[in-house]
Write a structure and sequence with these properties.
alpha/beta, six-stranded mixed β-sheet, Aldehyde Dehydrogenase, Chain A, domain 1, Aldehyde Dehydrogenase, Chain A, domain 2, 38% helix, single chain, seven-stranded mixed β-sheet, binds nicotinamide-adenine-dinucleotide, 515 residues, 2 domains
């Protein structure tokens, strides 16, 4: 694709927007770009520059130049930048939310929500002074003290998905920067503008040029990041196949990698639950952001005899969901991110019907789908879904809620534990013993008890199990600090000035003389 004469969302390198070298005139020397589309209209709103290896190289070189002085800046100095950044985010949240809605499609209120969750992490990172504290053991041996310190890694990168263009980057860079690293962000090419806005705010907050960069683009940029020896660690959030690829390629290249993948989140409803509250939760968590959340509920496991009442209550609530453009305050649920994704999600409804599931509410029949303008799909409710159906097995990532009926709690938990993903799960019950047993035996990273979307607050880490996370450390919280720092342990001997003098030569391994 050759760059047309439209506004192009640039990279951010060296504290300013960067569009790359002029387009070479020789054949085959086109500058790579992508289109940015407004999902509510289906119209191209602009273009985004796609980084090649040379752009990534420039970002890394710039970050390497900037890193030493940021690393040596005091904790107080680094924290002050984050405090100012936090104030700027609060002041500009409306503008950022508008950018997100225009490129992602989610409602303005939902976009404000993701910014608020990002701000939570910035506030957490403002406390990095406490989080970086090491330990100190006086007199571990005679006149010998031992202590631990944590130091930044260097230049690190984050690769992020389309569904949270502000929040997911803010799971990463506030903590990385607070710890004293330089950060390169590769946002999703589908909604690139929020990243630029955040870069501008960091500069306004006083972050030195080069410490934070944005390289826009696709696989070419990702591969250049994974292959660059100057990048010491990579945080990734996205679908499971790409998470696995990033984890395997990054670790093979000697990098520290945490790669968060996709999900299929189950919500178990026991017969003793408050069915009305469970239905509210299922609808909110299933259709919020059109189901394009990694913590969305996509499967409701109704333990009999709860199913009939629950399905009826969910159906009733779906009738009240207003679908429309995300910038209309009356809208509850916006369009899907692209036409291709909308059509893929719709194909699962077709497949579910063919496989024998009952279609209780069919989102393909929504009037906005027939209008053909924008990538809309109404909320869909499938009942009598079985684990062998594609609509159960695959991550659909859209407004499709599948109900699986089971006869017992044990059968319900087995479903969750046998599922290849393990991001989030929830149980709805009034039985504390059942809830406690569930939290103990379920093989999932984030558990909700009468809470459908159990995203941890910023001072607890976020992460799934199984195919939902490759690597050891979860995102943000103390795990984030551990990920973006290296540990050092110092053993020091300072003798009392009154008794100076060596211990004599000792070739044996020092020990406490137990035997
Ligand atoms: P995606 O995997 O398609 O893209 C994620 C990132 O990888 C983007 O920056 C993209 O440019 C890049 N990418 C895409 N294809 C690539 C390739 N072949 N090689 C290298 N890089 C590539 O994901 P998405 O569609 O943007 O986001 C939705 C997915 O993200 C869902 O699966 C969702 O569950 C997941 N997600 C997970 C979490 C979590 O915390 N576990 C959070 C948000 C989203």
């Amino acid at each position: 694709m050759t760059a047309p004469d439209t506004t192009v969302v640039p990279h951010w390198i060296g504290g300013k927007p960067y569009l790359g070298e002029p387009v070479p005139s020789e054949p085959g020397g086109e500058k790579r770009i992508g289109h940015v589309v407004n999902p509510a209209t289906g119209e191209v709103s602009g273009d985004v520059a796609f980084a090649d290896a040379a752009v990534v190289e420039l970002a890394v070189a710039t970050a390497q130049d900037a890193w030493p002085s940021w690393r040596h800046a005091s904790i107080a100095e680094r924290t002050r930048v984050l405090f100012r950044f936090r104030e700027l985010l609060v002041a500009h949240d409306d503008e950022i939310a508008r950018l997100i809605t225009a490129e992602h499609g989610k409602t303005h209120a939902d976009a404000l929500g993701e910014i608020a969750r990002g701000i939570d992490v910035v506030e957490f990172a403002c406390g990095v002074g406490d989080l970086l504290r090491g330990g100190y053991s006086e007199n571990a041996s005679t006149n010998v003290d031992t202590y631990s310190i944590r130091q930044p890694i260097g230049v690190v990168a984050g690769i992020t998905p389309f569904n949270f263009p502000a929040m997911v980057p803010m799971w990463m860079f506030p903590v990385a920067l607070a710890c004293g690293n330089a950060f390169i962000l590769k946002p999703s090419e589908k909604d690139p503008s929020a990243s630029l806005f955040l870069a501008g705010l960091l500069a306004d907050a006083g972050l030195p040029d080069g410490v934070f960069s944005v390289v826009q683009g696709d696989k070419v940029a990702v591969d250049a990041i994974l292959g660059h020896a100057g990048i010491k660690a990579v945080s990734f959030v996205g679908s499971t196949p790409i998470a696995r690829y990033v984890y395997e390629s990054g670790t093979k290249a000697g990098k520290r990698v945490q790669a968060l993948g996709g999900a299929k989140n189950h919500m178990i409803v026991l017969p003793d639950a408050d069915i009305g509250a469970a239905a509210d939760a299922a609808v909110s968590a299933g259709f919020g952001s059109a189901g394009e959340r990694c913590m969305a509920i996509s499967v409701v496991v109704a333990v009999e005899p709860a199913a009939d009442e629950l399905v009826g209550a969910i159906r009733e609530r779906i009738g009240g969901i207003a679908v429309g453009p995300g910038d209309d305050p009356a809208t509850d649920m916006g369009p899907l991110v692209t036409e291709q994704h909308r059509d893929r999600v719709a194909s699962y409804i077709e497949g579910a019907a063919e496989a024998g599931a009952s279609i209780v509410v069919d989102g393909r029949r929504h009037e906005l789908v027939a209008e053909g303008r924008g990538w809309y799909l109404g909320p869909t409710l499938l009942d009598n879904v079985r684990p062998d159906m594609d609509c159960y097995r695959d991550e659909i990532f859209g407004p499709v809620l599948a109900v699986v009926r089971t006869d017992s709690y044990d059968e319900a938990v087995r479903l969750v534990n046998e599922n290849p993903w393990g991001n989030g799960t929830a149980i709805f019950t009034n039985d504390g013993g059942a809830a406690r047993r569930f939290q103990h035996e379920v093989e999932v990273g984030m558990i909700g008890i009468n809470v459908p979307i159990p995203v941890p607050v910023a001072y607890y880490p976020f992460g799934g199990w199984k195919a939902s996370l490759f690597g050891d450390l979860h995102a943000y919280g103390r795990d984030g600090v551990a990920f973006y720092t290296k540990g050092k342990v110092v053993t020091a001997r300072w003798s009392d000035p009154a008794s100076r003098g060596g211990d004599g030569v000792q070739l044996g391994f020092p020990h406490a003389g137990r035997r």
